[in-house]
Amino acid sequence: MAGVTDRAFRELCVRFGAAFVISEMVSSKGLQYNDKKTGQLMLLSEEEHPAAIQLFGCEPEAMAQAARKALAYGPELIDINMGCPAPKITGGGSGSALMKTPELCGEIVAAVKAAVPVPVTVKIRKGWDGASVNAVQVAKRCERAGADAITVHGRTRADQYAPPADWSIIRAVREAVGIPVIGNGDVADAESAARMLEETGCDAVMIGRGALGNPWVFQQVNAYLEHGRHIPPPGLSERLTVLVRHVERMCAYKGEYCAMNEARKHVGWYLKGLHGAAAFRRQAGTLSSMDQLMGLVREIAAANAENFTVEG
């Protein structure tokens, strides 16, 4: 999730039980030109391992070179994005546009696999559109090319994120390949994670949008799968405390100006479901400093019937 899964967010997810995290998408072309911002996307802290660096591109040799450069940042594996539906990515032939050329998918995997000593994984979608559902074909190509695992999102590129994810395609891939398959799409809580595992037979579950403003989802899933125990959602006090700590860490990594621009969307996600959330989200859209955030937090506390102290 570009612009979302930065170091601050990944560290928070690990703290709440995520078993593995993946960087924001890194452009192979950006690495070719030694773009400073591209390099910063690959920075991994000690608190977030094991971690993967995710690369996107459509040229096998450029992807191989990018993977070699990524190793300097200490990832446990390299992930290849073949699922992003964003027009600015697919327009250049990358992301889910690769689903239209299965042979190229295999060539990219083979090149990256030959370039690095760590495992190489791939993220794909159901297909490009409803007329070209080819996740099984692409998965087989990637497996033959040396992929160590594959993540399947149960929607086509044309679907974007709107209709319910088709978990049957995840099962179809699981039955077609011998490497681990990770399911993705519409997992937002412990129960949906358990259902995906049962219905698809996948080896693991990837949670993306379900963690937005909700890093607690990982500990809830773990408790349910391991012990059959339900962990209730956090109270307002904890939600706001974690929000403040999250944004503080963003500021520490990126500087207040840049961090606060990006934090606005996170604040909106944390406030989902609260009394007066719509009005508070509008205020969040203009945040430019930690002082303003703390003022907003105090307003939220006053408007909601719960006594607590926000730390930080």
Count of DSSP helices?
14
* Rg calculated over all Cα atoms: 20 Å
Shape: globular
Number of β-strand runs: 7
User: Which architecture of the largest domain does the CATH hierarchy give at level 2?
Assistant: Alpha-Beta Barrel
Strand order of the largest sheet: 1-2-3-4-5-6-7
* Fourth CATH level, the homologous superfamily of the largest domain: Aldolase class I
Largest sheet: 7 strands, parallel
Encode the helix/strand succession as letters: HEHHEHEHHEHEHEHEHHHHH
**Which secondary-structure class do the elements indicate?**
alpha/beta
Helix content: 40-55%
CATH class of the largest domain: Alpha Beta
Estimate the mean pLDDT confidence: 93
CATH topology of the largest domain: TIM Barrel
Beta-strand content estimate:
5-15%
Number of domains: 2
Summarize the structure.
47% of the residues lie in helices and 13% in strands. The protein has 312 residues and is α/β, with parallel strands linked by helices.
Could you explain the architecture of this structure?
With 312 residues, the protein is of the alpha/beta class. It folds into 2 domains: 7-227, TIM Barrel, CATH 3.20.20.70; 236-303, Orthogonal Bundle (Non-ribosomal Peptide Synthetase Peptidyl Carrier Protein, Chain A). 47% of the residues lie in helices and 13% in strands. The chain contains 14 helices and 7 strands. The protein has helices at 7-15, 28-32, 36-40, 60-70, 87-90, 102-115, 135-144, 167-176, 190-200, 217-227, 236-254, 256-270, 277-284, 290-303, and strands at 21-27, 51-56, 77-82, 120-127, 149-156, 181-184, 204-206. It has a 7-stranded parallel beta sheet. Helix 9 links the parallel strand 6 and strand 7. The relative contact order is 0.09.
